[in-house]
Amino acid sequence: MNITLIESVASDCVDWESYDLIILASGFEERSIHIAKSLPKSVHSCVHVFGFSNELKTLSRESNDVVFRRIIGDSIFVSNNKGECEREFCRVFSTAAQGKSKLRVFVDYSTMSRDWYGYILTWAKYQNVCTTVELDFAYSHGIYASSFCPLQISEIVCVPGFEGGGAGSRVTTALYGLGFDSAATLTVNELIEPDRVVCFLARGGISDPHADIVLRENREMVESSRSSVLELPISDIRRSTSLLLEKLSSMNEASEEILLVPMGPKTHVLACLLACHILPKIACLHAKGTRNLPVQVSAAGPVSISRVVYC
Fold this sequence. Notes:
Elements: E1 3-9, E2 21-26, E3 47-51, H1 61-72, E4 77-78, H2 82-97, E5 102-108, H3 114-126, E6 132-144, E7 152-158, E8 171-177, H4 182-192, E9 196-202, H5 209-217, H6 219-224, E10 230-232, H7 237-249, E11 256-262, H8 266-278, E12 283-290, E13 297-310
């Protein structure tokens, strides 16, 4: 199946009763339950919650689980096994799609692992249960209680299902989505050793102090790039995906391996994954690592919702 539509949806236009499935994630950030608290009781039977297997007692995780259990009982799915997680996503989605020509799903990916929403996109692309899958991805923007510790890179892997098809090519180009963790991005670049570097970042407007900080913090990486920095909106997934595709299409040669390495906000991770489904040769990498101290994140501002349709 192919992506036929990407568009923004106003949060006040969400019709909860229209969804066949609602997917939530329980982590240690306070914003994990921001959207869940607004769900009407009439849709609780459609809700499935996936929980991280680590940091079960970190920050707000225990209180978040209490809220989720009030909604769905004791059926939070928790596993640290990638295969089990992927199979559970497939089971939940395939069961919900049975007997339907169109499946409508709401996904709160605010605190979700990129592997998880990667599984969701991959299922939508390759499933043969229904003719149309409509996915509404919701993101609660957050306020960080403090600066976070540097990310200590442990491994660099492809997001499952987004391995691309350019391995072994003569030339490698890496597109880095810049964030506040400049040291981690430099480490990843040293490990990948690409022939060419392109940088992109989130900019909310002409005057955006956060984007200016990211540029300043990543000056060394920007200077190693051979092109100007690509600026993407932080919440408009359609526009971000379109801008990435324009850039990727200009370099999508048969002899070139192209890697997307989003180190910035989750909205740009989603845009990268969508771009990979439209240009399947492109691979999306995940730089995994740990931080010494977790940071609390509370929800702030409007919820950004992006609709993606496969048919």
